[in-house]
């Protein structure tokens, strides 16, 4: 996943709003979001290569998401799949901070990553390169393939668009969030970060929605958790890599115990 836009305790009706794009090579096998057979309380898509996930939520309101940290010089051979960091939290029952303390001890097993996890009462962030567990205050956050809120053009644009949408609409809906995620405009060269990849790749990866030849936005997801404990999860996958053509999965449920 390459972009997460998060509104945490920032809207009068919603405790959590997430708008996210997952970017990946088109050839990587993937299953659409569903309730998992092996962990039936988990709703998430699935990477069929390593059986982890990039984003998901549970019937009890636990949620998690991961992004890669883009710096090829940090990559290790034989590293474990970072999607496991999300699926382990969703399938388990450790408290968020306790889980991140475990992840911090095991960080050397994985290539660089950013991990966002939480439940109905809290939101935490941990980045391997920063190596610090952060409990997040209410607000708007953006996460791509650097540390949380690094002002890359797509992160800044996405955060501003999310803030404007929430401020301008008393009643929010997935469609408005998907419009933000469908922005395919690339940033000008002078605003591009330098992350150790070729300029051609920096350009391609600078847009919110990516449509490359072999790599791009595979799916867009919206999670809305209201303050009454109702969850709406909508995933759109793009078989033709066109943001205007998608297959959609929707789940709605009440958080257990709410």
Features:
5 helices, seven-stranded antiparallel β-sheet, 13 strands, 258 residues, alpha+beta
| H and E order | EEEEEEHHEEEEHHHEEE
Report the CATH topology name. Answer: Penicillin V Acylase, Chain A
User: Which architecture per CATH?
Assistant: 4-Layer Sandwich
**Mean pLDDT across every amino acid position:** 96
What is the tally of beta strands?
13
Spans of 5+ residues with little confidence (pLDDT < 50)?
none
Helical coverage, percent range: 10-25%
Assembly state (oligomeric) = single chain
Strand order of the largest sheet: 3-4-5-6-7-8-9
What is the 3D shape? globular
Strand content: 25-35%
Class derived from helix and strand content: alpha+beta
Count of helices? 5
Largest sheet: 7 strands, antiparallel
Kindly describe this structure:
The chain has 258 residues and is α+β, with helices and mostly antiparallel strands. The chain starts with a strand and ends with a strand. The chain has one domain: Penicillin V Acylase, Chain A (4-Layer Sandwich). The protein is 19% helix and 35% strand. Helix 3 runs antiparallel to helix 4. The strands form 2 sheets. A 7-stranded antiparallel β-sheet has the order 3-4-5-6-7-8-9, covered by helices on one side. Strands 10-1-2-11-12-13 form a 6-stranded antiparallel β-sheet, covered by helices on one side. A hairpin with a 4-residue loop joins strand 8 and strand 9. The model has no long low-confidence stretch (mean pLDDT 96).
């Amino acid at each position: 996943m390459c972009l997460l836009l998060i509104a945490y305790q920032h809207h009068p009706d919603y405790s959590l709003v997430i708008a996210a794009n997952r970017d990946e090579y088109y050839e990587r096998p993937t299953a659409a979001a569903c309730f998992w057979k092996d962990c039936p309380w988990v709703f998430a898509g699935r990477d069929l290569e390593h059986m982890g996930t990039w984003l998901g939520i549970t019937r009890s309101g636990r949620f998690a998401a991961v992004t890669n940290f883009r710096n090829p010089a940090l990559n290790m051979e034989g590293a474990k799949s970072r999607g496991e960091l999300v699926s382990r939290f969703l399938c388990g029952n450790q408290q968020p901070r306790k889980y991140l303390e475990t992840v911090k001890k095991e960080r050397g097993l994985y290539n660089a990553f950013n991990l966002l996890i939480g439940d109905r009462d809290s939101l935490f962030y941990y980045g391997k390169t920063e190596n610090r567990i952060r409990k997040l205050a209410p607000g708007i956050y953006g996460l791509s393939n650097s540390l949380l809120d690094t002002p890359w053009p797509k992160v800044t644009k996405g955060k501003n668009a999310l803030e404007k949408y929430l401020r301008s609409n008393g009643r929010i809906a997935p469609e408005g969030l998907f419009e933000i995620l469908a922005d395919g405009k690339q940033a000008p060269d002078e605003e591009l970060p330098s992350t150790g990849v070729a300029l051609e790749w920096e350009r391609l990866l600078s847009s919110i929605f990516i449509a490359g030849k072999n790599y791009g936005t595979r799916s867009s997801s919206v999670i809305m958790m209201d303050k009454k404990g109702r969850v709406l999860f909508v995933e759109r996958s793009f078989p033709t890599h066109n943001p205007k053509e998608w297959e959609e999965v929707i789940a709605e449920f009440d958080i257990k115990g709410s």
